[in-house]
Amino acid sequence: MANSKIKWNGNTEDGRTTSVVWGSNSFTWGDVSLAAEIAEVIDGVGYTRRKERLDKIFKDEEKKKRFIDKFNLSPYEANIIVSDKETSEYFEQVIKNSDIKLATNWITGELFALLNEKDLEINKSPISAENLSKLMNLIKDGTISGKIAKSVFELMADGNKDPVTIVNEKGLKQQSDPKELDKVIEKVINEANDIINETKKKFSS
């Protein structure tokens, strides 16, 4: 196997042709591991199963390439997102109305960590694609910071709660209005002055 040349010569119903050279001269469809997988399938199973499995390999690779080209994902990110149908569907639902890069990072980071912790598949996610999309928009438009978003995410996981509702109820919005910021600054200064004055009184008495 290590030094053999295996050719899928176009005798399939769809006329597909692919060659895999293994060993010192490697032809790959995308990468070496994929070439090895194709070679193993061709050598290892009968015609019907071989065709089915090869079709799936090629379709997954084509989908991966489409996600890289269309959504500007890295090969690593695309490989994770297209790993199964449910994950890619969830991803596409999230990015319909939110930032692609931000959504990718959160799905492959925080969401997958949550699913692993709870031993759940993505189709059983405690956070819906719609609500994760809303959270992405709250970060993107500056309503909340990334740090606050992680706290909101944890609350969302408890019963698929709406992040907008959580932010409003908990008063988690970042202050961006200059007038409001001035009020906050003035309040902090006044409180600090009160403490200074109280301290002076203690030392002067």
Write the layout of secondary structure elements.
Blueprint: E1 5-9, E2 17-21, H1 32-44, H2 47-71, H3 75-81, H4 85-94, H5 100-118, H6 129-140, H7 146-156, H8 163-170, H9 178-204
Helix pairs in contact: 1-2, 2-3, 4-6, 6-7
Pick out the low-confidence regions.
1-32
Q: Spell out the helices and strands N to C.
A: EEHHHHHHHHH
| Number of strand segments | 2
Helix content: 55-70%
Number of helices: 9
Beta fraction: under 5%
What does this structure look like?
- By secondary structure, the chain is mostly helical.
- The chain is 64% helix and 5% strand.
- It is built from nine helices and two strands.
- It has helices spanning 32-44, 47-71, 75-81, 85-94, 100-118, 129-140, 146-156, 163-170, 178-204; strands at residues 5-9, 17-21.
- It has a two-stranded antiparallel ribbon.
- Helix 1 packs antiparallel against helix 2.
- Residues 1-32 have low confidence and may be disordered.
